[in-house]
Amino acid sequence: MKKSITILLIAVLALSLFAGCAKTGDKTDENTPASADASPESGELQKIVVGATPVPHADILAAVKEILAKQGYDLEIVEFTDYVKPNMALFEGELDANYFQHKPHLDDFNINQKADMISLGEIHYEPLGIYPGKTKTIEDLKDGAQIAVPADTSNEARALLLLEAQGLIKLKEDAGLSATVNDIAENPKNLKIIEIEAAQLARSLQDVDIAVINGNYALQAGLNVSTDALAKEEKDSVSAATYTNIVAVRKGDENREDLKAFIAALQSDEIKKFIEEKYQGAVVPVF
Predict the structure, then answer these.
(1) CA atoms within 13 Å, Cβ hemisphere of 48
(2) Cα 283–chain centre separation
(3) What SS3 state is found at 52?
(4) How far is it, in rounded angstroms, from Cα 111 to Cα 104?
(5) Which CATH number goes with the domain that contains 167?
(6) In this structure, what DSSP letter does residue 282 have?
């Protein structure tokens, strides 16, 4: 009897030691990159955290997520509803990348925050559009009419250039892509330019005569620049070439294998087709 109990105890001890060794062997060293064990076969996916505004960026990333999963990566999409927090989150290391902005906006952030974030690649541009509010056509704008434009520096300049292209105002010759309301040289109809946070522009339509709205916020409000706008940026315009939406990363991360896989998936033929079919000209791929 004692001999049987002794044999049983030895067997239990051996099994415990074996399980302990197996657990230790399966544990990833804290200094080992997560990508080392990431593969579709192992079922362990390496996480890539990317910040984005909801439409169209997060929607496009949802399609990219499926592509990356087959390559061993789990794309986590963190949504933001403004143009400030996504860059702060990336700057502070909470994100691996963000996808919501154009290069001039990123440049402004870098200057203001003394940061050095960079573009990993260009993806698309969203034509800025002039949308009707209380006044239904540009020709019907009366003296003193109110026009809402984005309040952030780069998009305000873009809006003013679009208004100038419609003959509504004339900017100082040297204003260019940094134009503000202070750079309006001629305003024959005494239009009142009201600066409003970009995310609130669509909601302001009922209170102003017309509004210049960013493509993503127009889409969120159910507006399509190709069918609903009174005028829009053309694909061969300076603005279209300048304000292409990019993927931003921290300087030094551009050679990370996971981010290389991410940008390759985002710039794939599959995603290009997805953008063209889903947005019908409201979002234009540039790759």
Answers:
(1) 31
(2) 12
(3) strand
(4) 11
(5) 3.40.190.10
(6) S
